[in-house]
Amino acid sequence: MFRNLLNRLFTEEPALTPLATEDAEIAIAALLVRLARADDHYSAAERRRIDQVLARLHDLDPAEASERRSVAEMIEAEAPDTVRFTRLIKDRVLLEDRVAIIRALWDIAYADERRNAHEETMIRLMSGLLGVTDRDSAFQRQRAAAAR
């Protein structure tokens, strides 16, 4: 299953088709994991927050969310560089879903109760690569900060 998912996610077809729902959820979760690992400190608080975000976004129970995160951790470790990985998701996920991804990324960035310049820079990079405007990203950051 893991290898098949990698092949579906990282295929280099000229006309990429939208990801199946579960594949998209795992690809998005892998972006969240990549952000959480960006500061070389992948804490239990960040893992819990990823589980919470996945449960909220995809209406999962805690065990399902944890399982998706575990698979996403493996996918993230095998994923190409952030630029290619993020662009791949952009090409295969609807814009409104990409805005929700940015909100989720900000939620993860604030999981450890402190701002980190490296994580913020990475979110700004991912926002641009996902085709989400700076304004929309700032709005999602504000929503995430207010929800803490």
Descriptive overview:
By secondary structure, this protein is mainly alpha-helical. Helices cover 75% and strands 0% of the residues. It has one domain: TerB-like (Orthogonal Bundle). Helix 2 packs parallel to helix 6 and helix 6 packs antiparallel against helix 7. The protein starts with a helix and ends with a helix. The mean pLDDT is 86. This is TerB family tellurite resistance protein.
Structure keywords:
TerB-like; 148 residues; mainly alpha
Set out the fold topology:
Blueprint: H1 2-9, H2 21-37, H3 44-58, H4 62-78, H5 82-92, H6 95-109, H7 117-130, H8 134-147
Helix pairs in contact: 2-3, 2-4, 2-5, 2-6, 3-4, 3-6, 5-7, 6-7, 6-8
Element pattern in H and E: HHHHHHHH
- Poorly predicted regions are none
Which whole number gives the mean pLDDT? 86
CATH uppermost class: Mainly Alpha
Strand content: under 5%
Determine Rg (CA atoms, Å). 14 Å
Largest sheet: none
Short summary:
Residues 25-140 form the Co-chaperone DjlA N-terminal domain. The protein is mostly helical and 148 residues long.
